[in-house]
Design goal:
disordered N terminus, mainly alpha, two-stranded antiparallel ribbon, 416 residues, elongated
């Protein structure tokens, strides 16, 4: 149960017996409606029973919260059911009825949205922040919270991630996951299961920063002088461009992660030794092995991830008549499902990328690796390692969510 649900249950359940009676529910609704009417009157400056965008801006300014016309219209549309561009008390009440807060600042926080959870995948869609979050600097707190959560979850699930990489590269040499796991354990011991995790954690910060900056620029370029929101397709294009840009800049770290994850004991003394030996043997080209399939894989991943996420979220909103705002756990579930769908469709490209990243004496191409896998291993060969990849999703999401909640509370991030 999320914090909002617990607070709501406490408000409903006056007798504290863990269940809610009809009388308790009716009492809550009546009392909460009185509070909502009082707060509504604080927004309704001209006392005409309606709230327009200018009254929203003025009320926010009185609360010392910066907001522009565009964001005011967005907030208005979230409550405006009849398309009148004004909020009636009924629309205000229906939207906020199950918000367990009475303070005006907390009600405004409930108006907000979003969650950025890192489950260990690199091609995820960038986080979409409001203009107010960007102006107030709240965006970097979201990114820091997500980065810390990602680092912790990646560290906890590192053995499964290394098993995935090992199967992608050497899967045809082992009959099953158990045999592969035993081979890794015998060769490197328990600590060896975390090989490559340091660089995997290290690349979170630069990738998130590059992706965020590129995404904001791409959205501005696509939107131009328009004031309306971007469509799903436009967000997909912006996300793909941002993903391609950030991946191009941090891609050498991706190659290093693979090299370190599949290395034998005493092969490298550390990260810098690995860099020196790679550069000595092949030059700069060694740091961009598999770059083409990685770049191609961003398009299906970002497109499917975003499309499935938006579809699931909008279906929920439609089924609840726009009066119930999706909570963080629900958004997280939508994100997990959409990310999984994106992984399934782009996985063959990710596998080919990893095999090209592995140290090889030959100079194979993307198509030659595809043909080799297809001929020797068939369709199943293109999905080697996907099982441990799925196994790590639930613990990664759970750990990320808990750490993210604690971190954003410590940084004062409003996330309702």
């Amino acid at each position: 149960m999320c914090p909002l649900d617990k607070k709501l249950l406490e408000l409903f359940n006056a007798t504290k017996n863990g269940s809610i009676t009809l009388a308790e529910f009716i009492h809550y609704v009546k009392e909460h409606e009185k509070s909502l009417r009082l707060n509504f009157s604080k927004f309704d400056k001209n006392k005409d029973g309606k709230i327009d965008q200018y009254e929203i801006i003025r009320a926010f300014q009185e609360l010392r919260i910066e907001i522009d016309d565009t964001e005011a219209v967005k907030l208005l549309k979230r409550m405006d059911k009849d398309g009148s561009l004004e909020i009636s008390f009924e629309e205000w009440r229906d939207f906020l009825l199950y918000c367990p807060f009475t303070d005006l600042h907390d009600l405004i926080k409930y108006w907000r949205h979003s969650a950025c959870i890192d489950i260990g995948e690199d091609m995820n869609v960038p986080d979409d922040f409001t203009q107010a979050e960007i102006i107030t600097g709240m965006w970097w707190r979201h990114l820091v919270s997500g980065g810390v959560a990602g680092a912790v979850s990646r560290t906890f699930t590192a053995p499964l991630d290394r098993l995935k990489v090992y199967l992608q590269v050497y899967g045809n040499q082992h009959s099953n996951i158990t045999a592969c796991f035993k081979s890794m354990l015998n060769e490197g011991g328990k600590l060896g299961m975390w090989r490559g995790n340091g660089i995997n954690v290290l690349k979170i910060a630069p990738e998130s920063a590059f992706k965020f900056m590129a995404y904001e620029q791409a959205k501005r370029f696509i939107q131009g002088s328009r004031t309306n929101d971007l469509t799903i397709f436009e967000k997909f294009m912006a996300g793909s461009l941002a993903g391609g840009f950030s991946q191009s800049l941090i891609y050498p770290l991706e190659v290093l992660k693979t090299q370190l994850a599949i290395r034998k004991s005493n092969q490298y003394k550390g990260i810098f030794d690995c860099i020196q030996k790679m550069y000595y043997h092949e030059g700069m080209r060694s740091f961009y092995r598999g770059y083409v399939p990685n770049l191609i894989g961003i398009l299906p991943y970002a497109g499917i991830d975003l499309a499935v996420y938006e579809t699931l979220k909008n279906k929920y909103i439609t089924s609840h008549n726009d009066s119930e705002k999706p909570g963080v756990p629900l958004l997280l579930a939508c994100g997990t499902i959409s990310s999984t769908c994106g992984q399934v469709c782009s996985y063959p490209l990710a596998l080919v990328r990893t095999r090209l990243q592995a140290p090889r004496p030959d100079t194979r191409t993307m198509m030659s690796v595809f043909r080799e896998i297809w001929i020797k291993e068939g369709m199943a060969g293109l999905y080697r390692g996907i099982t441990p990849n799925f196994l790590k999703v639930v613990p990664a999401v759970s750990i990320s969510y808990v750490v993210y909640e604690r971190c954003r509370e410590a940084l004062g991030v409003s996330m309702l």
